[in-house]
Amino acid sequence: MLNIIIHTMDYKPPPKNNTSSVFVVIKGSEPEKLAKCSPFAKVKVIESVVGSVLSIKTLKSNDLLVECKDINQSTKLINGLTTFLHLEVSCSYHKTLNTSKGIIRCRELQYTKLDEIKEELRPKGVTDVYRVTHKREGKEFPSNTYILSFDKAQPPESISIMYQRYPVSLFIPSPLRCFKCQKFGHGSKTCPNCQVCSKCGNSDHDSNNCKEHPKCVNCDKSHPSFARECPVYKKEMAIQKIKITNRIPYFEAKRRYEASVPCPPVAGVSYASAAQKLTPELLVKQVESLPTTQIRQLVNALINILRDSKPIETEAGKAPALTVEALPDPPAPSSQPSKTVKAGEKGNKGPKGLLPTPMDTETSKKRPEDGKPGKRGSSNPSTNGSPPRKIPLVR
What we know:
The chain is an alpha+beta fold.
């Protein structure tokens, strides 16, 4: 279990040497009137004071969030904008978007005090230091993982300590969960709901004296509400990652997450049943349920595949000719010539005598065995001059 030692810090504006973008909040004395103003007029007022900016967004509280190019432009906007379309406004730095947090792992700092680390890393933009501790058997042990707060919107890729560079990874905080009702998105101080046990979800006892079977309040599964394997926790953690990475509000990050999640599967049909292998028994059932015309089309397609297939070579030579049983007798000859394929025709790569007709079957009984001379020569029709056998299609 991880426990984080948090040191409170008063928010300060970004330093003057900060060249990254800076976020400024414009808050009106009458938010409803500010929200009804024309968006074109809002852009003109802001550009008349500081010129073009990176972006302008309207927050849920009807305040304006302006992303300035640098600290100089943000300072000019805060000092120069006091009235906005005949409305009194106040400008201030955003409390969280202008700062960032990163994680480093350094063994060299394990015996150094946090105040000394903070003071030595201040020229590099570090404003505060947190140290992660591990809890084992009721005791806390300090680790070599540190959470650094920076006075810029994005943390640096690395930081130098004792002439060694340590990579800095972006810190993603855990989603906010209420300790009173166990729901996500708010704290216990502003929670209007009743007290709920974090282990079983009941409201008649405390979690310290709980002896019931665990049940989550958020997903109704058999685990406590604070479990990391909870699907609702994983969802909120993914939203937090989108929010911190893209520096956007929570509701915008939630909208992007919901747009990226695929649609749920059809009820009653699982992925395993849809992706199971096609067995011969299942294939027979599917073929039997087809109409007669579709069965004939399927048989004709299989015949064409067999014609184009290569002969199978064995130790004794070529494999015996393939035959298809239970096929209907060919129709009576009509005035129109039927579509036939000669077994010995040039370009036919399939085995000779692939699908013999009933006439060929009768005549083959009168022929001598293969390899022995007879009145008509060898059994190979391509060498003795006998007429080739015709393979009719099923109509």
